[in-house]
Amino acid sequence: MGAITAEVTITNPADPARHWQGEFLIDTGAIDTVVPGRRLREIGIATVETRRYTLADGSSRDLEVGGALVGLMDGFAGVTVVFADDNVQPLLGATAMESLGIEIDMNSETLRRLPSVQL
User: How much is the pTM?
Assistant: First the structure.
């Protein structure tokens, strides 16, 4: 399967007029959503804590996290966003996908909205 990307909007829940849109890699292997830290700071997202993450190469890093609204396919969800290095490829993680009610259609390698979100 090839890489699937989508235009995703990150919005400051305290000030919805402040948002950033970018091309995100859909990464169901990642739990949280990864955003260049500079972009989050530009729209006023505050860090709330630091968490230890295991990266794809097996190394571990402590990274700051905050909360934001994530918009995709006419839906939105409140999710944890990771303040990553400024040059990182943004990643939309599994938690955001589940909260948005969106899945990958493996046959067409596209995103599709589920008929309902499970509680």
Answer: 0.90
